[in-house]
Amino acid sequence: MNYSDIVMDHFMNPRNVGELESPDGIGQIGNVSCGDIMRMTIRVREERIEDVRFKTFGCGAAIAVSSMVTEMVKGKSLEEAVAINRDDVAQALGGLPEKKLHCSNLGTDALKAAINDYWRKTGHPEKVVPLEDQHLEHESEEANACCGSNERGCRQPEDGGVSQGTGA
Ligand code: FES
Known about the structure:
InterPro entries: NIF_FeS_clus_asmbl_NifU_N. By secondary structure, the chain is of the alpha+beta class. It has one domain: Sufe protein. Chain: A (Alpha-Beta Complex). Helix content is 35%, strand content 18%. It contains 6 helices and 4 strands; from the N terminus they run αβββααααβα. It has helices at residues 5-12, 60-73, 78-82, 86-92, 101-121, 152-155; strands at 25-31, 37-45, 48-57, 135-138. A 4-stranded antiparallel beta sheet has the order 3-2-1-4. β2 (37-45) and β3 form a beta hairpin. α2 packs across α5 (101-121). The relative contact order is 0.20. Residues 140-168 have low confidence and may be disordered. The protein binds FE2/S2 (inorganic) cluster. Residues 31, 34, 36, 58-59, 61-62, 100, 103, 106 line the site of FE2/S2 (inorganic) cluster (FES).
C-alpha cells in the first residue's frame, strides 16, 4: 500500500500524543468495521481549542490521521474545528489509499465527540453535532472509565451499542 510522505512522517513522528490532565472534553470512538479505537482530549479557552492530545489503538493511517487532526485544530475556534471533515484531513495528508479512507473518519469524529462532550458538560447540548460515520462510541469521561490498558475488550462500550452517526 502506498502512503504519502506526509502520512509516513505523521506515522513515524506523531504529534500531540498522550492525554491532557483534566481535559474540558473527551471523545473516544471505535471503528465498527476494524475495531480500532481513538481517544481525543481537548482543552478549551474562550471557545478555542487551546490544546489537544490523542491516543490511538489502530493502524498506521489512523495514527497519522490523529496526529494531523490535532495539528489542524490547535488554536482554532470550536466552530472552525468542528467544520473540518474527513476529506480535509485526507487532503492535508497528501491523500490516503482507497482502503484506508475510512480511517480518516475516526479522527474527525473523535474530535467532534470531544467537542460534543464539552458542549454537554457546559450546558449547551443544542450545540452538539452529528458524527460523520457510525462508530462504537463513548463520548464522555464517565463512560470511558476503564483499566486504561490497550486491550480492545476493555475499551468496548459495555452495552456493545453502536452510535447513530449520519452515515454520510
Ligand atoms: S484500519 Fe482501522 S482505523 Fe485504519
